[in-house]
Structures are given as C-alpha cells and as structure tokens.
Amino acid sequence: MKRSKFLLFEKDIPSQWYNVAADLPFQLPPPIHPGTRKPLQPSDLSAIFPMALIKQEMSSRRWIDVPQEVWDIYRLWRPTPLKRALRLEKALKTTCRIYYKDESVSPTGSHKTNTSVPQAYYNKKEGIKRLTTETGAGQWGAALSFACNAFGLGCRVYMVKVSFHQKPFRRSLMHIWGSEVIASPSEETESGRAILKRDPHCQGSLGMAISEAVEEAAKNKDANYSLGSVLNHVLLHQTVIGLEVKKQMAMAGDKPDFLIACVGGGSNFGGFALPFVKDKLKNNKLKIIAVEPSACPTLTKGVYHYDFGDTASLTPLLKMFTLGHNFMPPGIHAGGLRYHGASPLISALCAHKIVDAVAVEQLDIFKAALLFAKSEGIVPAPESAHAIKVAIDVAKKERNKCVVFNLSGHGFLDLASYDKYLSGELQNYAHPVSEIKRALKQLPQV
Ligand SMILES: Cc1ncc(COP(=O)(O)O)c(C=O)c1O
C-alpha cells in the first residue's frame, strides 16, 4: 500500500531558522533609504521594527535560533503534515507522484502564523505595547491577531477595503483575538485621507494599507509595524516549512523534481523553497516554480528595479520585481496575491534564473481548487489554488516525476468566492497592460 501521510514528531520541529543569504552565489542589492537614497542602516528601521528583527533582516548567519517561547507556540500546530495526493494522482491518471505540505492546519488556517508568532515575541521583548499591520484577504491580519493575543500585545489591522467586504469572517477572527480592524484606505491616517480625497470609492490595495500601518507605527512610540511578507526576516521565519519538507521527503524516500508555491509577497514560497536553493545550485534539473495571478503579474511582467513597498512612498526602497508602487490590481479573490512587488530574495532568485515564475488565470485556479477539494477533501485558499493549478499542469505534462507543492492555507473563510465561482459570477481579468505601464512610469530613480 502506498503511504499517504508523512508525519514528524514534535521534537522534529526546527529549532533554528535557515538563512539562505549565507549560501547565495550573488550579493543581494541593499535596501535604500527613501530620503537620503543611501544604503539603509539598522537604526533607520528602529522607529517601526524591534532591533532583534532588524538584525535578522540584515544577517548573513546561516542558522538562527528559534526562541523557546516561539517554539512552544509552534507546537500548537507544527510539525505540519506532508501528504501524498494519491486521489488527485488517480483523478489525473498521472504517472507523477504529487505531494503537498499542509500549512492549512495552523490555528488561523495558513502559513502566516510561522512569522506572526516570532514577530510578536520580539516586539513584546523590546517593550512594545501594540502592533499595526496591513492585511489583504485577512490571513495575515488573523495570524498577527492570534500572535499578539498570545503575547498580550494590542493590534490594529488595516484591511484592504475590497477584502474587508469580500471576507467578513476573517474580520471576525481578528476580533476574536482582540484586534481592531479598519477598512483601508481610511480616514485614520494622512496617507489614507489623501487617497480618499483623490478617489472616494477606492477599493484599496496592499500598498495603500502598508502606508497607513507604517504611518501609524512611525508616529507612535508605543507601537511598531509588522509585515506579513516580503522582508528577509519574514521569509527566514517561514523556512520551518521547507526544513520540515526536507525531513519528510527523506521519510518518503523520494526527491522533488518540481517545487511549486504561490507568490504574493513571497513568504510561503520562500519558506517552502529557500531550504532547497542549495540543492538547485547543485542540480539544475530541479525546477522551483513561483505562481502568481495573471491579474497581478509581478514576477512575469514586472521590472527588476528599486521601488517602494507602499503607495505613499514611506518604506525603504527595495530592489525587487515590481509593477510600480501605484499599480492597482483588479479585485481578484486571491486577495493575498494582490501586491505590486515581491520579496527582494525571491526577486533576485528569479533574476538569476534559479526560480521560474508563471502566471495563471482566476477561473483556472478555481477549477483546479475544485478538483483538489473533490479528490483530497481540502478546500484550498484561492491563493494556494494557484500552486495547485500549476502542480496539476506539471503532473499532466510530465512522466514519473516528483511534484511537491505548498498548500499555504485552507479556504473555509473564502466560501463566498467559491459560491461566486460556482454560480458563474467570477471572471478572468485581461492583463492590465495600460495600468502597469502607467504605474511603471512612476518608479523612483536610484
Ligand atoms: C493562504 C495564503 N497563501 C499565500 C499568500 C501569499 O502571501 P505570501 O506570498 O507572503 O506567502 C497569502 C497572503 O495573504 C495567503 O493568505
């Protein structure tokens, strides 16, 4: 009988995070100060981040210890299962072996708690009283709310307006853990008010919500800002995913030929794939594929250039693939993938052709999600369904290959989107060429 689950013991939860910066065959371009346009110094970030996270952001140490307090909370849901999708394989009549890492079993239903817990921990340790953040679909806001509650911190979440209305139950989750949730753009901040003055019906974007959350943290001494993706320290925390996958693939006696995950800002992709970058450097046949929505095609249609992480140009300039910080993505239901930029680490790996990127359409990802739900029994988050779609495509095309994807979250709080898909109300979006051209014209000169 073929085995369908590869389960680790609690003692196998990684006690150190893996920092890929130690093993990259190239130098990462430094982040740049938005005012002086010089490389950023650690003290430049201290108004919004605790020093422990700033050090991690800039570290080149290969292994960084997971604090015991964080490890103890990880134990609530880690290690997560690696599953063989035997029923999906059968439905596809494929000769490939399909595995998926199931990050949907976390308390909030996605990978985001892997970093929200350490971020809340380090802020608490450095005397911060409350955190501000942005959220798209609500997965990150829920994860940070859970973590702030665990460490007795307050939390204020700026939620992209379109998702605030599309995903009301993620808001409920944030309320359960005691957070305040504000639809962004809002009247609460200068940057929010400026956007609403230009466009009173603006549906928001992650870039706008980041501006609001950063502004509030920068103006208040007791508050810090917390980011759910993009930055090096966030990807670092997420490497618990890939480190576990490595042990589980060894248990399965198999080796990945394809590693596939979706990319919003790049944290689940990075967490899953970065521990395999060394393998890729030794064996170029290993394919590492980042999947994004064609409505927000950062890695496939963006440019590799310094840009701001937010709309109001408050953040440091990061060298990354970007569609322009003023790019306004269409309101696709994978709200967590509506970001104009991508992690500098993942962008550099794409630029150096170590990672491949593909873009997929909204209707195709829901079709793939339904096949997965019908065969494997898990309703995936629309974001995760991007990885499923490409894993299915690869398994249909290839023969006898080992295909591993990251199921970054479940879709139990995305059922309204599934209803819309089932009743034929969802659409694909034409590639937003003119919007991208317009936004790219406003890239900063560095
Ligand atoms: C389930 C899920 N997967 C993936 C993402 C994309 O984010 P990232 O690229 O940081 O993993 C999100 C973002 O909200 C998400 O909720």
Question: What does it look like?
Answer:
This protein has 446 residues and is of the alpha/beta class. It has 2 domains: 16-65 and 112-230, Rossmann fold (3-Layer(aba) Sandwich), CATH 3.40.50.1100; 78-109 and 233-440, Rossmann fold, CATH 3.40.50.1100. It is built from 19 helices and 15 strands. The chain has helices at residues 51-58, 68-74, 86-92, 113-125, 139-151, 161-166, 168-176, 190-198, 206-219, 232-238, 240-252, 267-273, 277-282, 298-301, 344-351, 362-376, 382-397, 415-422, 433-440, and strands at 5-6, 16-18, 63-65, 82-84, 97-102, 130-135, 154-160, 180-184, 223-225, 258-262, 287-293, 303-308, 317-322, 356-360, 402-407. Strands 1-4-5-15-10-11-14 form a 7-stranded mixed β-sheet, with helices on both faces. A 4-stranded parallel β-sheet has the order 8-7-6-9, sandwiched between helices. Strand 12 (303-308) and strand 13 form a beta hairpin. The mean pLDDT is 96. Pyridoxal-5'-phosphate (PLP) binds next to helix 5, helix 12 and helix 17.
